[in-house]
Amino acid sequence: MKHTYLTLFLTLVPFAYSSSDEYKTYQNYKYYILRGDRAGTERTIAALQKADGSLTYSDTRNGAEVIVAPTVEALFSDLVAKENLTTAMLYDDISKIIQLEKSISQRKKDFSWTAYYDIDDINGFLANMSETYPSMSKLIAGGKSYQGRSILGLRIMTPDHKENDSVKPVVFIESGIHAREWIAPATTTYFINQLLTSTDPNITALRDQFDWRIFPSVNPDGYHYSYNVDRYWRKTVSKSSNGCFGADPNRNWDYNWGQYSSSSNPCDYQTYAGSQPFSEMETRTLSSYIQSIDNLLAYISFHSHAAILLVPYSDSTEHTDNYDDLIKIGKTSLDYGYAVNKQERYGGPATAAEILYKASGGSMDWNQ
């Protein structure tokens, strides 16, 4: 049976830190959309990063989105003019958005989907669901983090297949590999809740058909750091020899490691690929867990940026043997999503290399 691999993108400092560390506010940081010549956009981002190593950006199909610090605003304006780029400001002060996300007033007594929660709360939700629905679910660990946290998930299987659930096709879901993408763990915990509590026959049929292994946060240290210190932190928190810390865990898998959209600089805020493939405890232990799974049918990775669905490969325009099947599944998924929420799709289904940019060392390509 062929495996199915999809990546879903959804719309939306010091190494040693403590409770006394000040949360980075990002006050007066501006959020821009850049459009124009691709090479000019890349030169602009490179120059901004050289001036401010903590620049946060994301590549898009037609340009980039960048968060610009007050200290480099003048440089940003000069670069945009020099490269003949166009800009649109989304937010003039992103600290207001961060404050809204962190607002304690959104919280309810029980775990909900009206607020974002720290990693201990997410893991508490998983433990509570396994205790509430012991006949259908089990708390599982998919690995360990650099700081010693368990990468926790939930295995969901129906009672009538419990003794023989090993023969059921396994659907593996991971999210939160990029620490700052908080909506991804929120989405997967919501999905878990639906599988275990819904009486909708379409959902219960989906639940009963597969052996689900769902991991809301496979970068728990990074998520905790993003939640408590730096909202836009994306990497792990492993310490490098030069004093910088963290690597992009979605550039660290042992597949064409370090070739495209990957940095060899440990201080790179975005795409440092690690010192070697699987240098990060999170990817190394999670990959071992995945290799132990028999009858793996599908690997799904949730990210956040836009309404987009990507299929392998991320760093090549080569298509997998089951590419046509993946595209068919992807189109059905996107069409259904639009019917539900009327969210225009950003792109896809397609490979990341074709619709975005080439990126090596990702979990999806390794699992292919």
UniProtKB/TrEMBL annotation:
Q: Which InterPro entries match?
A: CARBOXYPEPT_ZN_1, Peptidase_M14
Carries keyword DNA-binding? no
SUPFAM superfamilies per record: Zn-dependent exopeptidases
Domain Peptidase M14 residues, every copy: 115-368
Q: Which Pfam families match?
A: Peptidase_M14
Query: Which coenzymes or cofactors are required?
Result: Zn(2+)
Q: Which UniProt keywords apply?
A: Metal-binding, Signal, Zinc
- Signal peptide residues are 1-18
The entry assigns this protein to a family as follows:
Belongs to the peptidase M14 family.
Q: What is the name of this protein?
A: Peptidase M14 domain-containing protein
Per the UniProt entry, what species is this protein from, by scientific name? Iphiclides podalirius (scarce swallowtail)
